[in-house]
UniProtKB/TrEMBL annotation:
Keywords: Kinase, Transferase
Protein name listed in UniProt: 5-dehydro-2-deoxygluconokinase
PROSITE patterns membership: PFKB_KINASES_1 (PS00583)
Taxonomic source organism: Cardiobacterium valvarum
EC number assigned by the record: 2.7.1.92
């Protein structure tokens, strides 16, 4: 069961400390982009993953390819181009590790990834295609998402969508809203955070908002609440099927924690031989959530995303010494 993550691959410039940028702030380039982060989390936990994206023919593109490969991500479908530069994002850290991003990608190399780049990919039943909303801005990459979803759906693969809103990338919030609602029904499993729910559904109360997400193929909704834990809902129940509290850690940088959470959850689905097309038991759902919460918590303990994500040995050590 392989995971294919489609979308942006970029460089996050991570600051030396929290607070607003000033003359004393120093930045370290760290490889990121939500889809690549998910592919890295999946690979580091023992799964086979691929990144479907494009980087510039520049030093940052080379850094992305090398870092992804070191994390275990198969980069055979990572394209290089001279037509645009690799995307950049500058991170601002706030107290508690929360962050915001300033993106430089107008256009960036990943946005020019086109449907024809998918020609050599042959998904199998049981594989997973994962995508986010960042790359759904009008560009060739958006059309590649449509083509990939059609291709993977026809092969019997599972489709995963992390809403992952980034409003600064959109000139008009209504366009982001429309894009999310176009691509939401195409997925089997959705991840959405508590601060995204109101934008997508108009409801901040999950009891009223979550049911609106069960459109089209959607069977499971993963609802994350940061330090307050996470739940999984299915379309056949009027309440959460499972819940996990967050693991209490001294967070340094939350960059990539949500990506690690969903990557960890998908990796555990594969590790246990489960499928989002099947009916998961309450015990299985709670085990998946607990596993994902650990992966997400560990990822906040260092600056940067991919370098902070655990392998199974580090996950085992964390489990042995860290109660909730």
């Amino acid at each position: 069961m392989a995971l294919y993550a489609i979308g942006e691959a970029l460089i996050d410039f991570v600051p030396s400390r929290s607070g607003k940028p000033d003359a004393d702030m120093h930045y370290t380039p760290a490889v990121g982009g939500a889809p690549l982060n998910v592919a890295a989390a999946y690979a580091k936990l023992g799964g086979t993953s691929y990144i479907l994206s494009q980087v510039g023919d520049d030093a940052f593109g080379a850094q992305i390819a090398a870092t992804a490969a070191t994390a275990g991500v198969d980069t055979r479908y990572l394209q290089r181009t001279c037509e645009a530069k690799t995307a950049l994002a500058f991170v601002t850290l706030h107290d508690g590790g929360e962050r915001e991003f300033a993106f430089y990608r107008d256009p960036s190399a990943d946005m020019l990834y086109a449907p024809e780049n998918l020609a050599a990919i042959t998904p199998q039943a049981g594989d997973i295609l994962h995508y986010c909303s960042v790359s759904l801005v009008p560009c060739p990459m958006r059309e590649a998402h449509r083509a990939a979803i059609d291709k993977f759906r026809a092969a019997g693969a599972a489709i995963s969508f992390d809403i992952n809103l980034r409003l600064p990338l959109w000139k008009n919030p209504a366009d982001l809203y429309a894009a999310v609602h176009e691509f939401l029904p195409l997925a089997d499993i959705i991840k959405i955070s508590d601060d995204e729910l109101a934008f997508v559904t108009g409801e901040s109360d999950p009891a009223r908002g979550i049911p609106q997400l069960f459109q089209g193929h959607v069977k499971y909704v993963v609802y994350t609440c940061g330090a307050n834990g996470a739940a999984i809902y299915d379309r056949h129940s009027d309440r959460a099927r499972g819940w996990t509290d967050a693991y209490r850690v001294n967070a340094v940088d939350a960059t990539g924690a949500g990506d690690a959470f969903i990557g960890g959850l998908l990796a555990e689905i594969a590790h246990l031989g489960l499928s989002v097309h099947g009916d998961l038991s309450d015990a299985q759902i709670n085990a998946l959530l607990d596993h994902a919460a650990k992966v997400g918590a560990i990822t906040t303990l260092q600056r940067g995303a991919i370098n902070s994500m655990p392998d199974r040995a580090r996950l085992h050590d964390f489990t042995a010494r860290k109660p909730k």
